[in-house]
Amino acid sequence: MPEPLPPVLRGLLEEWDLERETDEVWGRFSVAVPVRTGDGERAVLKVADPGIETEHEALALQKWGGRGAVRLLRADPHRRAVLLERLERRDLTEEWDVHACEVVGDLYGLLHVRAPPQVVLLTSYVGRNLEPLAALPRDAGLPRRMVEQCVALLRDLTTDPASTGTLVHGDLHYENVLVRPASDSGGDWVAIDPHAMSGDPHWEPAPLLWNRFDEVAGDVRRALRARFHAVVDAAGLDEDRARAWATVRLVLNAFWAVRDGKPDPAYVTRMLTVVKAIAD
What we know:
Radius of gyration: 19 Å
Mean pLDDT: 93
Largest sheet: 5 strands, antiparallel
Oligomer: single chain
Strand order of the largest sheet: 1-2-3-5-4
Number of domains: 2
Number of helices: 11
CATH superfamily of the largest domain: Aminoglycoside phosphotransferase (APH), C-terminal lobe
């Protein structure tokens, strides 16, 4: 028996004249199913969970128009629903991590265009954490030096005009880059699942550092710095600014885990380890 679908997906299958092709259901923070359109095109119907990160997925995909990202066939932003071209289910976890970082760095050149005025400002998204982070008790479980460093960086970056204006993906890690079938355009790597914001290109690299962390056993500093420099060099980013934004993201991840109570110690340690590894 096919796995039961949420009501919104069942409704969209009928409204958009789609046929569910298999019993598979994909996704962790969204629900996606392989379908065929009325004219036989292979596609994917996806409905994302509500949240600020998914609010403008359709708008970003429309803006990119298939350049560096999955092609959008149809959308209902109110229901966080998109109909997408079907890609191969092969991602960058199958590639050497340093090469994968270079692939992502190249993708930035296609994705980093002028942001539509409707998307959330990165400075607003991170800036709301400034005062709560500064007020974090010293016994909260995070190194005070890192907290103070993040606060100082947030104050500088959120007041810098260069921190907004570019459409950023926001969650471009190894599993969010898939292959477009070779029959379409040579088997290009393309991005999926954007957390679209009006931001700074230097916001992007951090997820490449904290993901696939089990592969950096041994000389952690060397391995993570190799990733960092690979993506920075491939994308032509400013190393210091990329390091600053990565530090902000990593410390905020740890802060959110601590703030929400009962944090996973291994997760918090991973975030802080990456901060130390890329420190100049």
